[in-house]
Amino acid sequence: SLARRCQHRSTAMLDVPFLPFCTFLGTLGLLCVAMVGTWCQHWRGGFSLDGSSQTFNWHPVLMVTGLVVLYGAAALVYRIPNTWSGPKLPWKVLHSGLALGAFVLTVLGLAAVFCFHNSQGTPNMYSLHSWIGLGTVLLFSCQWAAGFGAFLLPWAPTWLRALYKPIHVFFGSTILMLSVASCVSGINEKLFFSLKNGTTAYKLLPAEAVFANTLGLLILVFGVLVVGALARPSWKRPDSDSPDSRQ
Hints:
This protein is mainly α and 247 residues long. Helices cover 72% and strands 0% of the residues.
């Protein structure tokens, strides 16, 4: 029918090849990392480990790099067409390794902000941003441990893996969006704290505010595109109960 042909054409127009999409997404992720580093270096005074505000600057860089970009890369491993056949174990190791790397960077990012707060006598865990952030990290740690136990350890039964797999996938996307919410709220909070007393007020939109707001939007776009890629039916790994899934 005409309606079916129109639907097919619209679907075909929206059908973006996976590898160019991933190239664009990787470029966007690197741009987010470069921008957060530039923000902290150019406007916030650079980096140090002395407990000053320069120590705090490690926090946004490590969180964006680990909790958003590297975590997003880990989430997309099973959308790579090469994972759709052959042994799954190397891809499992890559997926868990990227996620572990993201977790390590995230913990270092938390250490930076706690070090800064403690050295300045600032209370910890009082803002909505901090609540969302810590909750995301705790959920992330549970997700990684459960995934390691269910999918990498050899004694996990097949029925348990089948039962846990949709839960693991759901919380994977949930953690990414919580990570994005944490980073965006953190950028906004930092601008409110910094752009006052002797600086151009945030409401007057100085160059730093424009730059950091743009960074927040790019992080949001990155997260939405990753979740969209995870939800795209044509990019999902074919569900198989092959023997190699029992590795």
